């Protein structure tokens, strides 16, 4: 718990530090044993905890839906089948409402994004000290369990989405269509000289808009989940400040956890919805 051996600042720093694997200053490779070592590893370091929990939850999602599919029944469905069917219907309605073109990949991609991000966000409801303390018993110094509080994870997902968006943009519109969207809007003119003058202005505006989409997509998810995790950590510190503060912390933690259920669901839904919208833009002319 907070305050056993760490100051409040050290406690917060510990819980916000990833389990990092990379190259040490002496040239060797290994796991960082301090936040300073993790920072010194630089860009090519790997956040092992982010990789583990994101992959584990992705596999859990695939296992759950595969198990439901293998045991589906036309009779009275069980709880797991009901949940899976409700989720698929919800995703299907979301896709139909935002995507007007035909692409059999969009709905499965949206389902994967929503459930995967929701599961990663859901880990924020696990008491902040439980898994880190278990990890300490196993000799693991750091363990962040909420992958979406790591910008590497959220940027990775956003970049993956935009690789798919660019693929369909070039496939459907071609290189000329893509360049036309970057240079011939929002300002246009029938006068060729004026239109030529508009091209650099349009390119700057559209390029900034294009780059801002994956950045905002990733930072929105990261920022909201990071703030939520920070609040849980600050509340946990209250348990080391006496019985009265501990009781108050328990009430605050329960209240924030209940409210946070809405946040973790909403953030998964927003990421999925924006993905659908960006794919819709890739399939249609401006």
Descriptive tags:
286 residues, mainly alpha, three-stranded antiparallel β-sheet, globular
Describe this structure in words.
The protein is mostly helical and 286 residues long. The protein has one domain. Helix content is 71%, strand content 3%. The protein is globular. The model has no long low-confidence stretch (mean pLDDT 89).
Short characterization:
This protein is mainly alpha-helical. Helices cover about 70% and strands about 5% of the residues.
Work out the helix count: 9
- In terms of per-residue confidence, which ranges show pLDDT below 50 for 5 or more consecutive residues? none
How many strands in all? Answer: 3
N-C termini distance: 55 Å
Can you write the helix and strand succession as a string?
Answer: HEEHEHHHHHHH
Radius of gyration: 23 Å
Order of strands, main sheet, comes to 2-1-3
The computed structural class is: mainly alpha
Total domain count: 1
Shape: globular
Largest sheet: 3 strands, antiparallel
Mean pLDDT: 89
What share of the residues does DSSP label as strand, in percent?
under 5%
Helix fraction bin:
over 70%
Secondary structure: elements and pairs:
Blueprint: H1 8-15, E1 20-23, E2 29-31, H2 35-40, E3 46-47, H3 48-70, H4 79-98, H5 106-122, H6 130-137, H7 151-183, H8 192-237, H9 243-283
Antiparallel strand pairs: 1-2, 1-3
């Amino acid at each position: 718990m907070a305050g056993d051996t760490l100051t409040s600042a050290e406690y917060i720093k510990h819980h916000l530090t990833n389990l990092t694997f990379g190259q040490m200053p002496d040239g060797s490779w290994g796991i960082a044993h301090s936040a300073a070592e993790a920072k010194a590893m630089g860009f090519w370091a790997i956040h092992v905890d982010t990789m583990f929990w994101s992959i584990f939850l992705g596999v859990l999602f695939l296992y759950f839906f595969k198990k439901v599919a293998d045991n589906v029944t036309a009779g009275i469905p069980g709880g797991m089948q009901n949940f899976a069917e409700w989720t698929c219907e919800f995703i299907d309605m979301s896709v139909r409402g935002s995507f007007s073109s035909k692409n059999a990949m969009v709905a499965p991609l949206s389902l994967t994004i929503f459930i995967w991000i929701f599961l990663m966000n859901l880990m924020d409801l696990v008491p902040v000290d439980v898994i880190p303390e278990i990890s300490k018993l196993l000799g693991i110094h750091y363990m962040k369990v909420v992958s979406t509080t790591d910008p590497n994870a959220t940027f990775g997902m956003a970049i993956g989405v935009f690789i798919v968006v660019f693929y369909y943009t070039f496939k459907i519109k071609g290189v000329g269509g893509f360049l036309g969207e970057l240079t011939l809007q929002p300002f246009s003119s029938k006068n060729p000289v004026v239109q030529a003058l508009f091209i650099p202005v349009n390119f700057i505006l559209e390029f900034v808009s294009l780059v801002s989409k994956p950045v905002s997509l990733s930072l929105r998810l990261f920022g909201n989940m990071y703030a939520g995790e920070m609040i849980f950590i600050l509340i946990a510190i209250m348990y080391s400040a006496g019985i009265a503060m501990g009781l108050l912390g328990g009430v605050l933690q329960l209240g924030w956890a209940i409210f946070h259920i809405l946040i973790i669901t909403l953030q998964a839904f927003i990421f999925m919805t924006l993905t659908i919208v960006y794919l819709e833009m890739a399939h249609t002319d401006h």
